[in-house]
Amino acid sequence: MNFSRILLQASQKTLDELKSKIPEKAVYRQSVEAITAYRLKIVEENEDQLLAEKLINAGQMEELVEQAQDEIRLISKMAEWKAWEPLEEPAPPRQWEYFKKASLTE
Q1: Whether the Cβ atoms of residue 14 and residue 72 lie closer than 8 Å to each other
Q2: What is any one of the record's Gene Ontology cellular component terms (predicted)?
Q3: Which of 12, 91, 102, 105 could form a disulfide with 95 if both were Cys (CB 3.0 to 4.6 A apart)?
């Protein structure tokens, strides 16, 4: 089975789905487009599947295909959820403070 070819197809479908379903300014779209375009370029430029796996450094080709297929399904969910829109209710005060990086001087 030619997993490189399958990954190329899945990557192109991912980019098409993003363009048709997710706004251009959404951080989710920007992130997924960047990762997908990077992987797509590596696979297009390297016929050697093992080399492509090594350069992508995110698993074996079969796993990369699975990741791409999972992302395609997630795009539909993200479009349904409209995760880029403002919250319906404002977040409580200090909601996100826990996630701030700790100061190095503390």
Answers
A1: yes
A2: mitochondrial inner membrane
A3: 91
- Model pLDDT for residues 61-104, shown as the tens digit of each residue: 999 999 999 999 999 999 999 989 988 888 888 887 776 665 55
Residue range 28-71, pLDDT digits in tens: 999 999 999 999 999 999 989 999 999 999 999 999 999 999 99
- Can you tell me the distance from the alpha carbon of 72 to that of 86, in angstroms, rounded to the nearest whole number? 24
Residue 6: helix, strand or coil by DSSP?
helix
Structure tokens at 42: 């590596």
Tokens standing for residue 106: 């503390």
